[in-house]
């Protein structure tokens, strides 16, 4: 493995992507039928700059059950961690894996990586050592940084570092003078890579640019009307795309991030109690956990303003319970692929939506264009309102493709024929329809075998490939059963 190599060489340029097979007439129709939202967003200012220049450096920026960091504390810790990483060879375009039992230090770790212009790679502690080693091999990571100072807390990460010969660093060891440089302001720079399930057995690393990440952060800030009094519960595991905005969005407004430990995040009763005690105002959950929390004693909280459902389809019956049992709380149905910087649509659920068979997933977030297309013998054509088609996404949110996986990149990413040269279009593989000429989108399922279980994107083919690798297995098939 070539440690320290930048990831740009492993990514396809726009000119290397295929053109979408669509006629000029259908291009014109698709432009007329597209769903788009354009808003000015500051994309050239790194998150760290917002933290270091906070209006009130003494305000609480991030806390967990053991530590509280003000904005000044967070900026100083990020600079110390950046110095530690720089000594290990981290710099522009290099990849740093971050893992361990998540806590407040993970926010400082992300900001440290951003300061150096490096690329953030989150690692879930539950990953087996073989997956850790495979991901390290694909990314040419320069270091593994654990945010938990307990050696026994992340055995897979430790073992993985031995397998891949990558140095293991601990955020708690950053007791040196802080790195003195300024964070680079390059919107096109890769900012993080997240690994999703792969149908061939190898996980795919989706690369997101700084502008896509920042555009999504500000979309959340605006659509949730976030401000300095908000407390957002960070509940998503590090390997999930939702963890990125949960860790960072409040920092753009002087708000606070409450990092919820894994045990509490998986316990509906404990989580409901934490939301009440800590004054949480914004909470995001997969519908499976949301249902369990509503079943808990005293699920409501006087401070909660926004409840987001994401990761899997939000059932009508569950949405009805939320609206009835949590009056005054906005229920937001969110949808988006990892490859497009997380959510690309938002929808505020109302009682009127409950008459539908499937809840709407909404309309585009800022600087995002959505196209519903139908495949035919003559290429793709634009779907009429009400007609089922496949969702394609364009705009600032679209990522760079899959790291080192040119074949899979060309299957899902295309040159965007609807926008200026240099843009990408992402094929989601999701079946949707638009509810009327001016209505929102409705999600109807996958067009391939991919499934989501408790918010986790799973390719049955990846499981089949792992099973076939066992010498005692000749062949196999993986199917999903509803319980």
Fold and architecture overview:
There is one protein chain. This protein is an alpha/beta fold and 483 residues long. The protein has two domains: 1-44 and 203-448, Rossmann fold, CATH 3.40.50; 69-185, Rossmann fold (3-Layer(aba) Sandwich), CATH 3.40.50.980. Helix content is 28%, strand content 25%. It contains 14 helices and 26 strands. Strands 1, 2, 13, 14, 15, 16, 17, 18, 19, 20, 22, 23 and 24 form a 13-stranded mixed sheet that branches. The radius of gyration is 22 Å and the shape is globular.
Q: State the helical fraction.
A: 25-40%
How can the largest sheet be summarized?
A: 13 strands, mixed
* Span of the ends, CA to CA: 43 Å
Radius of gyration: 22 Å
Q: Helical element count? A: 14
Low-confidence stretches: none
Q: Count the E strands.
A: 26
CATH architecture of the largest domain: 3-Layer(aba) Sandwich
Outline type: globular
Strand content: 15-25%
- Structural class based on helices, strands and sheet pairing: alpha/beta
CATH superfamily of the largest domain: ANL, N-terminal domain
The average pLDDT score comes to: 90
CATH topology (level 3) name of the largest domain: Rossmann fold
Instruction: Tell me the number of structural domains.
Output: 2
CATH class of the largest domain: Alpha Beta
Structure keywords:
483 residues; Rossmann fold; 4-stranded mixed sheet; 14 helices; globular
Topology, please?
Layout: E1 18-19, H1 24-33, E2 35-37, H2 47-52, E3 60-63, E4 68-70, H3 71-87, E5 95-99, H4 105-115, E6 119-122, H5 129-139, E7 143-146, H6 155-164, E8 168-170, E9 190-196, E10 204-209, H7 210-223, E11 231-234, H8 242-248, E12 256-259, H9 262-265, H10 268-277, E13 282-285, H11 287-295, E14 306-309, H12 316-325, E15 330-335, E16 345-348, E17 360-364, E18 368-376, E19 379-382, E20 389-395, E21 401-402, H13 406-412, E22 413-415, E23 424-434, E24 441-446, E25 451-453, E26 456-458, H14 460-468
């Amino acid at each position: 493995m070539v440690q320290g190599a930048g990831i740009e060489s492993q990514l396809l340029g726009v000119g290397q992507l295929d053109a979408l097979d669509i006629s000029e007439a259908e291009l014109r129709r698709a432009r007329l039928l597209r769903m788009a939202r354009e808003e000015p967003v500051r994309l050239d200012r790194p998150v760290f700059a917002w933290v270091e220049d906070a209006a009130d450096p003494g305000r609480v920026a991030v806390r967990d059950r053991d530590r509280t960091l003000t904005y000044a504390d967070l900026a100083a810790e990020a600079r110390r961690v950046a110095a530690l990483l720089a000594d290990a060879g981290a710099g522009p375009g290099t990849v740093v894996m971050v893992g361990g039992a998540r806590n407040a230090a993970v926010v400082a770790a992300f900001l440290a990586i951003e300061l150096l212009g490096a690329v953030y790679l989150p690692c879930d502690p539950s990953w087996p050592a073989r997956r850790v080693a495979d991901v390290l091999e694909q990314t040419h990571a320069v270091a593994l940084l654990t945010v938990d100072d307990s050696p026994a807390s992340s055995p897979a990460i430790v073992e993985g570092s031995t397998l891949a010969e990558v140095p293991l660093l601990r955020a708690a060891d950053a007791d040196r003078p802080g790195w003195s440089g300024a964070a680079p302001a390059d919107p096109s720079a890769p900012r993080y890579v997240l690994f999703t399930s792969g149908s061939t057995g190898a996980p795919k690393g989706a690369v997101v640019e700084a502008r896509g990440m920042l555009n999504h952060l500000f979309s959340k800030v605006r659509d949730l009307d976030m401000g300095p009094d908000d407390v957002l519960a960070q509940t998503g595991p590090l390997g999930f795309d939702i963890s990125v905005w949960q860790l960072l969005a409040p920092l753009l407004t002087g708000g606070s991030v409450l990092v919820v430990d894994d045990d509490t995040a998986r316990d509906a009763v404990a989580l409901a109690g934490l939301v009440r005690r800590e004054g949480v105002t914004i909470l995001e959950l997969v519908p499976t956990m949301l249902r369990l929390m509503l079943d808990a004693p005293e699920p409501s909280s006087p401070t909660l303003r926004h409840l987001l459902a994401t990761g899997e389809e939000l059932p009508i019956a569950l949405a009805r319970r939320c609206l009835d049992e949590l009056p005054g709380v906005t229920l937001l149905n969110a949808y988006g692929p990892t490859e497009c910087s997380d959510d690309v649509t938002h929808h505020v659920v109302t009682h009127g939506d409950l008459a539908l068979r499937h809840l709407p997933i909404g309309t585009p977030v800022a600087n995002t264009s959505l196209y519903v297309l139908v495949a035919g013998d003559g290429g793709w054509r634009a779907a009429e309102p009400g007609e089922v088609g496949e969702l394609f996404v364009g705009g600032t949110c679209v990522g760079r493709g899959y790291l080192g996986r040119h074949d899979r990149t060309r299957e899902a990413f295309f040159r965007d024929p609807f926008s200026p040269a240099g843009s990408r279009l992402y094929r989601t593989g999701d079946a949707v329809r638009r509810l009327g000429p001016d209505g929102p989108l409705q999600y109807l399922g996958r067009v391939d075998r991919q499934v989501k279980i408790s918010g986790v994107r799973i390719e049955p083919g990846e499981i089949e490939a792992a099973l076939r690798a066992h010498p005692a297995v000749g062949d196999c098939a993986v199917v999903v059963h509803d319980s």
